[in-house]
Design a protein that fits this description.
The chain is α+β, with helices and mostly antiparallel strands. It contains five helices and nine strands.
Amino acid sequence: MYFDRFVLIAIAALALGQTPSSPPATSPDPAVERVEKMLEELEAREQAQDKEKRTYILTEPDLNAFLAAKIKERPRKDVESLRVEMKDALFTTFIKIDFDEVEIKGDSMTASLLKALLRGTQTIEVDGRLQTENGKGTYLVERATLNGMPLPASLVNSILSSVGKRQDPPFDPTEQFDLPYGVKTITVTLGKATLET
């Protein structure tokens, strides 16, 4: 239910959304199965109101396999591909976005100017920090580029907000949010994220 939210956070776009669907019948990817199993367990624990502390590890290769499978399974008009690198306390997210499908917030002149400049498919690279404590999180954009050209953080936050509001349920990753599934903290280190309930 909330995995697309984690993806948005992980992207600085893209924390957690729909309940994982059943894996395809033909040669399922073990990495995708591991993520789906973890999400199913987290969701079951939340529904059972299981308060026992547990630790879950989400590796970078498993997350990227899961993201690719979900994008293929549920194509979106605005997001063509998504890949995440995990570093110490930092996510670097690479996302291909079709800007013709993104609603950009702002006054009409700014929005019109940005729509004129940002057309078609572009690649955004975002370095961001996910700060979590006591079941709450915020995502802070530290650096962003569009096709290698630096972008203002305010523009990236506007794009993330627009993409986040199209999720089910809608949310804004630039504002404080509740972590899903009873997760209390998420710690990002090289190649993995550690989720603590």
